[in-house]
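Write out the 3D structure for:
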Amino acid sequence: MAQNCRFAFGVHVMSVLALVREGNSPQSVVASEHLAATVNTNPVVIRRLLLDLREAGLIETHRGPGGGAKLSRGAHEISLLDIHRAVSGEIEAFGEHPNEPSQKCCVGREIRHVLHEIAGRAREAVEREYAAISLAEVAAKMDN
């Protein structure tokens, strides 16, 4: 699964958990099979995602009959950056230059350095935006 897909799935799953938490008791859990059905993917994909979210401390999971996942804290306390870091790691603005550029060319000598600087600035901007958006804001857009 591509990294951007993992983030989309992560936000999707966390939004479902946020809506369940708001609509029912904070003890409510959602089974991975139900989450997989709402994402329209295989439950194994969702279980792997849930492991990453649990390891990051964003959810709790419970095994056995009646088991499933639930948020570990309020949706307003979880940012999109938290979710991204849990399921996709660091934000990449764009990939590395795949070939060694010609050192005889003025662009070739400097392009990697310049692209690295630009990518850093872009990453910081995306991180600021993701950090400013809470899971509660995302879930509120779904709860009509």
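Residues 3-92+133-142 form a domain with the Arc Repressor Mutant, subunit A fold (CATH 1.10.10.10).
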